[in-house]
Amino acid sequence: MHDMKLGILDQAPISKGSTAGDALQDAVRLAQTGESLGYERFWLAEHHAMLGFASSTPEVTLAAIGSRTDNIRIGSGATLIPYYSPYKVAENYHTLGTLFPGRVDLGIGRAPGGPAEATEALNKEYLKNVFANEDRVAELMGYIHHDNHTSKLKMSPLADPPPEVWMLGTSVKSAELAGKLGMNYCFGYFMSNAGDMREVLDTYRNSFTPRKEGQKPQVMVTVTAFTAESEARARDIAMSSIVWGIERERSFGESGENDGLPSVEDAKRFELTAEERDNVEKRLQNMFVGTGGDIAARLKSLAAEAEADEIMISTNTYSIEDKLKSFELLKKAMDEV
Hints:
By secondary structure, this protein is α/β, with parallel strands linked by helices. The chain has 13 helices and nine strands. The N and C termini lie close together (6 Å).
């Protein structure tokens, strides 16, 4: 188990009473801490017009993070490809890969990552591009790997090695496309029906076509985890994130004071309906909440089931100190398993 790689997926959440600037500085600090603890990679999600998150432009923040770290891999989880020109995305990530050689990942997805108004503002042809996703991802892979035979177009700069490309998904369709194009695959356990995992990963491996000699399918699984000194404390920290989700659902379509992560104390005071209480229990079951030893054992079991090369962890907390402690306790426990 010592060689199980661990990664961090951050969303740069904004806590109530703090600012987007604080959230982005916390993301830098988390990446630095992750590097010192021995995490393999640090990814930033992409969200649009969601006032509780400060990460609308991962590629810009990654430049700041890369310059303040030395060896942890940095990347997007995910760049939402239907919004953008594949050529421009390749330029962005080749530039990052030139600045930080051998450290850059490009995770791609096709979700909207925000409300319909933001989708419309970002790209009026979003739906058309979703339908053309396979061709657009193939075009992107050609640019990334300097082997786009359909075009004589040259690119500068060209990173050597090129960015590592991961498809993020939860469906058979995304797994098949990743396999066919020789991409790595990241299964979003934290946002899916976990029962689908085996079928999706089998599809990926069975459809895998190496892009270069000796290349093998790579699988990562992303989970939500909260680790603390006691199970009760871990649950309290997790509840802050869960209550935030419920607040957002209640005020769907509105913006305002519900847009930040509540403190542990505020989350405890939050009154849930009976239906919401049931929902909380379901959410907790899909998360990894507890002491380091408990979570390490569960993650080891999940990794074996998925035959995963790596586990990536998402942890949204009100306090950056709780978040750093969670990643520290988890890494220590995983190293001991």
